Amino acid sequence: MTANSPSVFLLMINGQIEGANFPEYDDLYCKYCFVYGHDWAPTSGLEEGISQITSKGRDSPHRLVWNFPLEITFKSTNPLGWPQIVVSVYGPDTFGNDVVRGYGATHIPITPGQYVPLIFSSTPLSTPPLIKDLLSRHTRTIPMFVPESTSRLQKFTSWLLGRRPEFTDPKVVAQGEGREVTRVSSQGFVTLSFNIVTKDMKRLGYDTTATETTHTHTHPVAAGFGPGNQTLSM
Amino acid sequence: CLLLALSLWSPPSDLPPRPQAKPVPGSSHSESSTMRQRMKDKLKAARSEMGLPTAEEAYNFFTFDFDPEPDEETRKGQKRRTRPEGENEEGEDGGDDDEEKEEEDKEEVTEELFLIDQSADDFLVFKRAEYMGYQRRLQSENELLFTPSFLTVPASSKVPENMKPRYLEEEGLYVGERPPMSLTNQNILENRILKQEQVRWFGDDGRIMALPDPIKESSTRPPLFHIEDDLDPALQTVYRKALVSKHASQYISVGGETNGDYQLDVDVSGLIFSHHPLFSQEHVLGSRLVQLYDQHLSRQHRNLTEHLTTKLNGLRNTIGNMLEVHGGQRLTPVMQQRISEYKQEVRNTRRLRDLEQEKDRTLLKGIVKIWKEIKALRDFQRFTNTPYKLYLRREEVERASDVREYEAEIQAEVDELLDEMEEDYQRKVTEYRRQQEEWKVWRRKQRAKNKKKKKTQSQLDDNEDDEDNDDDDRTDGEAEPGPPKPKPPEEPDMEGVEKQVSEKASRIRRKPGEPILVPELTASGPITPNEQCPRGEFARREDVAKRSIFIKVLYNDKEVSRTDNRSLNSDFRVHFGQIFNLKIVNWPESIKLQVFEVLGLSTTLLADVFVPVPESSILTGSAPSEELVFSSNLRVMFDHEAVGSDVPFSFEVDGSNRQTLLTSGKLSCSVSWAVGEDDVPLAPPTTQPNGLKQLDAIASIGASGLNDMKKLGEWATESRLDPNDPNNADIMQLLKVASSGEVTAPDYFRLEQLQEEFNFVSEEDLEQSRRFRLLRLRNQEVAEFRNYKFVPAMEREVTDKVFEVRSLREIVDTKGHLDAHRALVAKHLHKIRESIINRFLIAKHHFIMSDLVQEEQVPTIGILGLNLFKLAEPKRPLKPQRKERKKVTAQNLSDGDIRLLLNIIRAYDIPVRKPSVNKPAVTSKSTRSFTETLTAGQSQRATQGSDWLLNQVQVRPFVEVSFQRSVLQTTTADGPNPCWNEDLQLPFSAPNGDYSTANLQSMKDEIFINIFDEVQYELGGDRGKEVHTRLEKHWLGSVKIPFSTIYFQSRIDGTFKVDTPPVLLGYSKERSLASDGGYDAVRSLTEGAFITLFITIEPQLVPGETIREKFESQESEGLLLASEVFERDAAVHFPDRPCLTTVININGKTVFITRYLRPLNPPQELLDAFPNSPQEATDLIARYVSLIPSLPDSVSFAGVCDLWSTCDQFLTLLAGDEEEHAVLLCNYFLSMGKKAWLIIGTAIPEGPTTYVLTYEQNRYLIWNPSSGQYYGQYDTFCPLQTVGCLVSADNVWLNTQAYTSPLRIRFDVTKAKLWKPFFSRAFPNPGLSSVQCITLHIILHLPFPKISLTCRIEKILKEKIMEWRPRNPTRWNRYCTSTLRHFLPKLELSRGRDVADEHRLELQSLLGDYRISGFPLHLPFSEVRPIVEAVYSTGVHNVEASNVEFALAVHVHAYPNNVLSVWVYLASLIRMR
């Protein structure tokens, strides 16, 4: 890869799984993994991870905090199959069996940018919502869900035996194919925050920073037909 | 509480109390007072404790403006207040009093604080809340609010002033039906609108403008489901097999279907003669009267006059309105245009109305006239023939109003006419002026010309003359004709108009005040009886009575039935009332009714009546009865009173005014399609060509047959269709299209108009770009690119090499194949495979729940019970049983997760080394067995036994397993029946790391299980005590098991026959003694080496399910259903018995299995080989079939169930699996006159498979078609384990016996208890034809030189062996090679039997100095690769002795049809000294 004509672009993600909001459950832990297309490969960092078990605090009776760091770098030649993070949350049920509490997935933000953390004060203080939104541009709150049992009886036995239905592979929640055969119910929310750095994306013709004024490139990307003409729909 | 809230405002410390607030009147006052009371008590106590503010209080005072605890300060304030006890009530009266009192206590407070208090007081003004009385509030609200009344609004207030509501409906315009709305709501809305003075919301008719109700009364889509029963029977989907019509299209449908035929109902109700030769004069008049009366009735029914009058009035009103609205203002051109249009319309309507009125009038007059004639005639002839009687009913009218209307009408018309004439006149005048202008101009020109002319003539003429010389000029100008001088138009004759109008009115209308006459015709009058009639009339009546009428019904010009004879009555009406049901097969082309008259024995055809073929929507019950007019020009004359036909006659006495009448009449009938029992119309579908009929928009509004667009346009403009009427929407659309010049309306609808917008590159770029091509190929899941990683970002980085892989694959390299034919076959197979894999890939994208979600099964009672039982089970049972393991789906696996487990238990009858009888020495240096003589046999056996007892090891076998080039071996055991009982674990890795089911299924890897003999040789024994030994392994035999078999069966457990070479140099088998040919030979053959194995995969993989897809079929529905039922029954009752009734052919269609069996002639060459011994011939044929290479379907057609190819296809492809072999073998046997069946069952190691059963010499033989071997029914080593069903050419039998093993069942299919037949008496065989060709196409000769193939194989193998020995030189012993080559044809001839000893003899004589170990390999030939693999697996090349030499010979024997058997003789030779 020469400096002038890169053949891949890099996407560096670091962030964290901040916490979750599961109103009824406690002592949960989560797993994450990345799902990406054929043209992507992780170059460094952890592709999968499993967090500590966290309990609800006395101060924040609704919030489970993991603050579990994510750090990974991908290289890619094609934005098709942009990485998604799949988070699955597990915890004990009333009998102490480890059961799944939720699956969720979201795409990694495509815009490079920074996440400015909010300091949560214990008092319900009122930051104007506008500023909050601005700050958390790279915060994702993903709704979580679990597959439903096929029948009442199944539900009962699965509750009794502590063997709830699970996805054969958590990665199915990041894909659309075959989902029509499943039924799910919602569970709670997981909040993630990201800092995104990209390299050479613009050189390959992918401009993801739409709102900002583009830098003055004296030399446009190779003349004639090239990936510069492509859109993200590839 | 108010008090508390206010207290926040008060300073926290001991401030002088201020007036807090004036409590609002009401309840709050009393509440606060009680509160105070409570506080007061508390405060007293607190006060007594501490007199002064504490330090904290002081701090609080200085730091906080507002004390967070209201209690404290209220207490303080309260205290102040409460001191004056009685003040509470006064609180509201005045603040001033309060303040004064508070000031008295201010000694505790500093001055500054007081000031603050003051300022606070300044800013706040406390006032009592304003209260408005209820009544006043209502009043003020009334000004703002409005409650719409729900009373009906008078129409007058809704239309503009001085206007009458105008009803468009009455003017004949289409007004849609309004959506329903409750009257109250409507009134409220109207009132509201009126209040807002938005009158524009009201239409001309004084109602709120509304669009027509958009809801259709009937749903356009019939409801599919009823609540009570499942489906409306009329909508029930009935499967009908598509049929190809054998006949021409004139047949509606030919098929054995019971209700596939159609039925026409022809209802002939009767006929009425409007003229008949036997009519008397009175009849003629009577029928005329009836006709007129009918006409009258129909006119009255249509009431055109009334309709037109209303329309006229409406139009007049409209014009009036328009003129009135715009009053004296100047009319806009548009308005003018409209008014003139309206006027035109009025004129037309008036003309039409007048015409209609006139017709009415004349009709009435005509009726009266004819009635008078009849009466006169009756008087004249003094008898009555017809029962007609006419009454004229008078309807009195109110004279005054009638006159007024009449006058008004006339006046209106006169006005209009005058208006028109005036207009006309004006127009003419302007025209005249214009023409005059023109004429003048022309004249001037003319004159100028003349002038010039004159100038040329005389050149002296004066200009002044010009004006005078008009006449001259004109005479001059005569030469060139100009426009004639226009004449001024005539003044309209105003007076004449009125006269004209009133004249016309009196002509066409009834006089004012005259009663309305309504004629009524009855047929109740008496007819003079026959006796009282004169002779002529009597004769006529007699004649009438003699005649009778019947009608023939002709369908497509063939008589199908006829009515009964009905006699003719005096009123000449015949009633039939007969309905003919015509079951039809041919398309209806014409339906003709023939009217016949019968007189005595002669019948005459009166007329043909053609009835139109009804549309398929016309059904019996709803079809209207039609009256069809017929007439005939037959000339009939009578000598009696009857008028005859085509004969002039006259009513007058003097014979003047003669008339000629022809026989004519009306036939009333109706033709319609019948309705079946279950309300199914028995009409052919409309989609079929139905003559001329075209369903179009025009037909729907009753103007059928107007196919010409122009005519249609004219018609539409003429008839002034209401464009608002939704009924006309279609035709309006059509007209719009027609008027725009394009006759063809687009009959398609496009959604992707914006497709262009979505394309991010042009189509060409997409085609050209290599990168996009790559991306697309990957997306299409083309095999090579399915998981292609990292498609480069730049076009230039995609090299063409990427695609070369694909193109390489497409052109199957013929290099790999030794002959072109095989290459072609491989290509063909490849194509089939490709298409089937595509199908599979599509199916792979259909998920079911268990693919995605892992869910515990609900435990059934049985499982729960078993689990409970298990608790009591011993922990370590004495006879442990294998448990079912949990299955693992393939998707979350990676390399190293899967291992192949082999448990090698024991082997039987391993060949043993030939001991040297003569030399009992331990060292076997001097050759081993070549000293042996042919006298082997019994004596040898005996000596052997003694040898073994004494010293010698017979054999030291071990097993080596190789899979995916990883090799493991067991320890070495002793003896010909060794027992290892060892577990071997082989790693497994899927190709490309893809553990998907599809990929695993398509794996072609095989597991080789080789048995070797470990031979120890001592080297250099003569040097002292050191003994060097060398270990050599000699290949004894092998078992090959394809991975796919293990994958599909998940485990393989059993005893397998080891493939041993026919000749093993240096080894011998322990044979049974008696082998005298015949079928006893069977036993000796089956006695080979056997090995007991258990193989499985850990963890257990879920085999891919077969495609959940129903294959199409050409079998009849009933057969398919029956086979489904049969198979399901079998699966329920005998779950472990494979049952096949339908199979899938190579095109992916379901075919019934018996169709595959049919006697087929084996190649003649094979039959001729052993003309005397049918036994031998049978063997040869079995061998021939087994020589066709085997190719498991499940490997080539991954995931798809077995595909069965016909024998023809099989022999062309020269590849197939057990089914194809079995079918071919069975067919050959059948043609040889044997009784043969297919056995569908399971065997080891193949799993579900197909064998062939024959019945010979009172015993059943089971043939393994892929090996060509046969077993007796009671052979313990028969690989067939289960017999599921038997198939013959005409039936399938399911095994219903208690056991499945061939040892324990009876094969007599005639026993109904033991075998359940598919085709029984209840469901007989429909006579299924075979799918096999009658004769097999057989290529007798090799298409390539056999020798060259032999050479090539030999060359390749030699190269390979050298390649496998990279470190040692490989020497070839030519002499030995040629000797071996010499042996091979013999082996082929004897089919590998009983030749070992000859070999030994020969070899020994030739190669005395060598120790030789070797064997021939025998393979069917398909490609070189399997041969190479087989050679490699024997491990001959592994000999590491330095002085080793090799010998290799290849022989190819060609059987008919390009079936090749390949022999490879391999030997390693070690020179002895």
Draw up the topology in text.
The complex is a heterodimer of chains A (about 230) and B (about 1450).
Chain A: E1 9-21, E2 29-35, E3 40-45, E4 48-50, E5 64-76, E6 84-92, E7 98-107, H1 129-135, E8 139-147, H2 152-161, E9 166-167, E10 184-199
Antiparallel strand pairs in A: 1-5, 1-10, 2-4, 2-6, 3-5, 6-7, 8-10
Chain B: H1 2-7, H2 27-49, H3 55-63, H4 70-82, H5 95-104, H6 111-123, H7 134-144, H8 183-196, E1 262-275, H9 281-302, H10 304-325, H11 333-381, E2 389-395, H12 399-457, H13 464-468, H14 470-477, H15 494-508, E3 516-522, H16 535-546, E4 547-555, E5 558-562, E6 566-567, E7 573-584, E8 591-599, E9 602-611, E10 626-632, E11 647-649, E12 659-661, E13 663-673, H17 697-700, H18 709-719, H19 729-739, H20 755-758, H21 763-768, H22 770-779, H23 801-810, H24 820-844, H25 849-852, E14 853-854, H26 861-871, E15 887-888, E16 899-908, E17 912-913, H27 937-950, E18 957-963, E19 966-969, E20 979-987, H28 997-1001, E21 1006-1019, E22 1028-1042, H29 1043-1049, E23 1051-1057, E24 1067-1068, H30 1081-1086, E25 1090-1098, E26 1100-1101, H31 1117-1133, E27 1142-1145, E28 1150-1152, H32 1164-1169, H33 1174-1186, H34 1193-1196, E29 1203-1204, H35 1207-1213, H36 1218-1231, E30 1235-1243, E31 1247-1256, E32 1259-1264, E33 1269-1272, E34 1280-1287, E35 1292-1295, E36 1315-1317, H37 1346-1364, H38 1374-1390, H39 1396-1406, E37 1410-1420, H40 1424-1434, E38 1444-1455, E39 1459-1471
Parallel strand pairs in B: 15-26, 27-29
Antiparallel strand pairs in B: 1-7, 1-13, 2-3, 4-5, 4-6, 4-8, 8-9, 10-13, 11-12, 16-20, 16-25, 17-24, 18-19, 18-21, 21-22, 23-25, 27-28, 30-31, 30-34, 31-32, 32-33, 34-35, 35-36, 37-39, 38-39
Helix pairs in contact in B: 2-4, 9-11, 10-11, 12-15, 33-36, 37-40
Main location (chain A): cytoplasm
Subunit structure (chain A): Part of the tectonic-like complex (also named B9 complex).
Protein name (chain A): B9 domain-containing protein 1
